[in-house]
Amino acid sequence: MAIKPCLVLLLPLALLLLAGSSLAAAQLEVGYYSKTCPNAEVIVRDEMEKIISAAPSLAGPLLRLHFHDCFVRGCDASVLLNSTESNTAERDAKPNKSLRGFGSVDRVKAKLEAACPNTVSCADVLAIMARDAVVLAKGPSWPVPLGRRDGRVSSATEAADNLPPAFGDIPLLTKIFASNGLDLKDLVVLSGAHTLGTAHCPSYAGRLYNFSGAYNSDPTLDSEYADRLRTRCKSADDTAMLSEMDPGSYKTFDTSYYRHVAKRRGLFQSDAALLTDATTVEYVQRIATGKFDDVFFKDFGESMVKMGNVGVLTGAEGEIRKKCYIVN
Q1: Four-residue CA torsion sign, 119, 123, 126, 130
Q2: What global pTM score does this model have?
Q3: Known binder of ligand: residue 164?
Q4: Are strands 242-244 and 198-200 parallel, antiparallel or unpaired?
């Protein structure tokens, strides 16, 4: 009985710490614009339908923009800012040189500004567009908590230092994800986004040529698949050639990515790394059976919401940019 007062004292402290850690996330809410811009998500979806209908291959890049935004300074649309004479912005960092879809974001934002001036943030636009890109690529939907504000700082150096690299192994990737409040399950689930899109040769050529002193190519890469990739990627310096990250269905959001990874045919070293950890390999092999698509779809939505909460600015923090590529 004597321990009860101690518990009473400790419980509020624990709740206070928990509340502090999740305060920003709690300030995001589904339906945030219900009074200030009730048609916001409808406007985004209508424009996204036109964008993806005209260019289905943009689904992957638009999803990727949200990823690359959230891993640097949190989900604050800093990835969209242009460089200036005195600052090199995130979008011009080496890992972001291949990002696409900026024009589509500007197009959606312009529609929102016409309907609801100075109301919907660029950070929220990215989150909604990412969800809609997945839906329009025949993937799952999920409610997107909204209320993010836009940041005013964008650094190419920070992007280079903080984005998960294509050559990452499990210890490095786990560290980067953990620093953003994401765990191993989020890592293997969000890697499933590689079911959409293409990649430039330099991002995986290191697995094909001069891999190490003992091996010319990465021994963890299926040799037949490596031969096929070499026919497209003639050298590590080939910046023009693209390869599908999920061969045969790179415009469709499905579970075939996991089947490729399970067969040692993941394009990146970070994909292959999923087979080196007990937790991630179990998930890969389970989803690869094709019997648990609904599980992956549910998990992906949950991990996307979790990632979308990373480092968000809310309330009076940041600003609502009028144009996503420049601060007000």
Answers
A1: negative
A2: 0.90
A3: yes
A4: antiparallel
